[in-house]
Amino acid sequence: MSVVDYLLAPYDFLHIIDQFVVCNFTSFSDHAPLHVRLWCILHDSQEPERNSGTSNNSYESYRWKEELKDQCYESLTLNSGSLSQIVFSDIEKSQDGIDNYVESFTSILMDIISPFFCKSHNSNNTCDRTRSKTTRYKDDKPWFNYECKRLRSIYTSSLYTFNRDKNVENHRILIMSKRQYKRLENKLKRKYKRQEGDMIVTLRKSDPKKYYNLFQKKRAKTSDVSLSEFFEHFRNLVTNDGINVTVDTPESVSDATYDELDQIITQDEILKCISNLKRGKSHGIDGTFNELFIEFKDILLPFLEEIFNKILASGHFPKSWALAVLIPVFKKGDSSDPANYRGISLVSNLAKTIYIYYKFKTN
Questions:
Q1: What does pTM read for this prediction?
Q2: d(CA 187, CA 248)
Q3: Are 148 and 181 in contact (CB under 8 A)?
């Protein structure tokens, strides 16, 4: 097999190509997708404006893709040495030392997996309205029938087999299964469009109102609240200005001690925590998502054990784990009133893992 997917770049630009990965073949194209990362320096003539705590910076969003699991596993294995240099190095047992330690590990880890699961997500000064109601995504085309689904399943299975073992026989089976699937899909698609066309022609005469409703553009529902208004609203919720709370406390309070919380965290305990993580959950600013720990626990387990115990020994909680992405979810009422939105905080899933550990310990 030969690689026919390539990147054209001037010779003078070769030194800024930091990463080049030929990804696995997908069902979207006959060509393998490429992942390229460049080192670029941006020169700003003016200092960016700061607007009441809000930021226009973009952050990376990650989504798990089962078909790229094996390729990412191989990349993690090859680059585990870079993680080891960070994780098993001596650190300063201070807040800054722990912060730099955790951020260095997270940065290298996400650089390794970003070619497989990363997609850019830009923030702006507007906010799409988010409802708590779950919307199910239907991936089947309206012309799909049972036979078409069966052939698609055979094709995707052949694609998975070929990506695992790229030999001539697997390639032949892949081409044959794809040809059979596409031939039937195109036939059913033409039949469906012909029936839809006949239906529209009939509808134009029998029910003109319904006919014109088919062509009305659907407007996306957006929030009437700016990010700065959301910022002020949620900031007021967590501050206690003007609120006086009197708490009756005894004159002498004995500090409760839990010896089990000072013991070394073991790999078995971390595995128990990982088994309680749920798939498909959103991640925080650092990008660590649950599938990362679930699928690659045999590689990451020694690193997590070392990181958690160093944090425990230092007595400092990483500041990056306390940061969260706040998602306003519209409940009901006036969409222009920030009080009608419920805030959901997305924190680091790496932090959730150690939180689950202490939850088990205290219970």
A1: 0.60
A2: 77
A3: yes
